[in-house]
Amino acid sequence: MGTRRYEFRVDGRLSEEARNAFVDMQVSEVPLQTVIDGEVLDESHLHGIIAQIQTLGITLVSVHPIP
Asked: Which of 10, 15, 37, 52 lies 20 to 30 Å (CA to CA) from residue 31?
């Protein structure tokens, strides 16, 4: 897969604790959602980010590679 930039959209706003879980990524708020984006090293890293989102109890809305 190789390094690629991804955008993760989640429901609602993230707490400070949740934001700190994604220190290597940019976190921004849009109406009713939060966008987390950054470099993903490989497929394992991608699945790890998704697992982290689920572990924090955050509802994942979408995941998209950024061209």
From this structure: 52
